């Protein structure tokens, strides 16, 4: 699989905050990435956990290459809550996640998000 085909640019539109750009990387969790891409655009209401923003989705996936530790800027899928997560600071997940990509631009915006704000994740 070529590098271009395995990387998918996405946009997070965050109510009253702005837009952030990320990429989903197929090889990190192929089944999860494909399920998320098929479900886009998806919309949810933000919840916060430490320095993590997350929102529930209709995507139902189990663990895939699960990780208990993440890096600042990681985008992940949390099987326990069927949620997409963005780790914008020095935070770790509540329980293992499927890391699916990274934020490329606008990571600082996630620190300004308020609980309950609308967020839309879609293709670019």
Can you give a write-up of this model?
The structure is a single chain. With 124 residues, the protein is mainly beta. The chain has one domain: Cyclophilin, CATH 2.40.100.20. Helix content is 11%, strand content 42%. It is built from 2 helices and 9 strands, in the order H-E-E-H-E-E-E-E-E-E-E. The chain has helices at 3-6, 30-39, and strands spanning 7-14, 18-25, 42-45, 47-49, 52-56, 74-78, 83-87, 98-105, 118-123. It has a 9-stranded antiparallel beta sheet. It is globular and about 30 Å long. The chain starts with a helix and ends with a strand. The mean pLDDT is 95.
> Helix tally?
2
Mean pLDDT: 95
Oligomer: single chain
Strand content: 35-45%
In spatial order, strands of the major sheet run 3-9-1-2-8-6-7-5-4
List the main descriptive attributes of the protein structure presented here.
124 residues, mainly beta, Cyclophilin, nine-stranded antiparallel β-sheet, 11% helix, 42% strand
